[in-house]
Design a protein that fits this description.
12 strands; transcription; HTH_LacI; alpha/beta; 354 residues; SBP_2_dom; LacI family transcriptional regulator; 13 helices
């Protein structure tokens, strides 16, 4: 049933007073006789009046300058989707005065992150969307932005003991647990399972640590620790090389290696190694629908991908800032996005038409 629109004019007519008097009561300004005020408030409650926040925001004509502190997609294609998401949100919200300035940093350089974070402070935006992939370096800035009164939304990485307006992303612990459960279905004999952190500084990546905890706890909760040995390894290498030597060494050390869980979007690096060495019996699961991951998923070398919806993270992050700043809505502290399991059979349904 369509909700009836209640106007200030309707309330004024019922209360037998002027629209100006109703407006003063609604905004608690100016002098209004007590009996008139009580009559207006009773009618407001009876008619279930709600202010038209969209119309108010259009009338105000105020500009809202938002900032996005995000990694360079030219250095890591994973970040293309959040860029696209926030740009989509900006187009939708432009009529309300929203403008976004991007502060783009090198995802492999903490000094680059620090420099761009300082620029954000000097710019003093009305709100900030941030991917805090450098946990230690980000902490002092959270305090600084809070003192400056800048609301900020976290995406991709959830951080405890800070007070963002909202976190947008996946539940990292459940994500790791889900990955373990999926892999378990494909393991028919005892063996070693590798948690691979590919080209990551794991000590400074809180969300990856949490994913690994969820993964390990699944095997513990199912009492599978004696059947499957779970190991973890940081596999770091220059862009012009690959993980071959480190994976060769791991296979020599663990000849019963039967599955690999890549905790980020770099599953394609491991998939290239498996393809090159014709290793068809090692199960592989990773994250995100970047192009090279899609190729190996279609080939059957990557068995599953978990979609973290990076486009949605950028999109909803900007919308949550707008809901807070423009529409004055209450914002939930956490907005978890669904954990989508992608196979080559359903991949096409998750690809946006070009």
């Amino acid at each position: 049933m369509k909700k009836k629109i209640v106007r200030i004019k309707d309330i004024a007519e019922r209360a037998q007073t002027s629209k100006g008097t109703v407006d003063r009561v609604l905004h608690n300004r100016g002098r209004v006789a007590d009996d008139v005020r009580e009559r207006i408030l009773a009618i407001i409650k009876e008619l279930n009046y709600e202010p038209n926040l969209i119309a108010q925001s259009l009338k105000s004509q105020r500009a809202f300058n938002l900032a996005a502190l995000i990694p360079d997609p030219n250095l890591d294609s994973y970040w293309e989707a959040p860029h696209n998401g926030l740009e989509k949100a900006e187009k939708e919200l432009r009529q309300y005065g929203v403008r976004i300035t991007k502060f783009i940093f090198n995802s492999h350089s903490d000094t680059s992150f620090i420099a761009k974070a300082k620029e954000v402070g000097r710019e003093h935006p009305d709100g900030l969307l941030i991917a805090p992939i450098f946990y230690k370096e980000a902490l002092p800035f959270f305090k600084e932005w809070a003192e400056m009164g800048i609301p900020y939304v976290l995406f991709n990485t959830q951080i405890e003991h800070v007070n963002p307006l909202c976190y947008i992303g996946q539940d990292s612990y459940r994500s790791g647990s889900l990955a373990a459960k999926i892999l378990r279905f494909g393991l028919h004999s005892p063996g070693t399972v590798l948690v691979a952190h590919v080209n990551e500084d794991i000590s400074n990546s809180a969300h990856l640590i949490t994913k690994e905890e969820g993964f390990r706890d699944y095997f513990k909760s199912e009492q599978l620790e004696d059947t499957f040995k779970v190991i973890s390894k940081e596999i770091n290498f220059p862009d012009d090389e690959g993980p071959d030597k480190q994976l060769d060494d791991l296979r020599k050390q663990y000849p019963d290696l039967s599955a690999i869980y890549v905790t980020n979007s770099k599953a394609f690096e491991v998939a290239a190694y498996l393809e090159k060495n014709a290793l068809k019996d090692i199960k592989l699961i990773g994250y995100d629908l970047i192009g090279r991951n899609q190729q190996y998923l279609n080939k059957g070398i990557i068995d599953f991908l978990i979609n973290q919806n990076p486009l949605g993270q950028g999109y909803w992050g900007i919308h949550q800032l707008a809901n807070h700043l423009i529409f004055k809505k209450e914002i939930p502290a956490i907005k978890f996005l669904p954990l989508d399991i992608i196979t080559k059979e359903n991949l096409d349904y998750y690809l946006d038409p070009q």
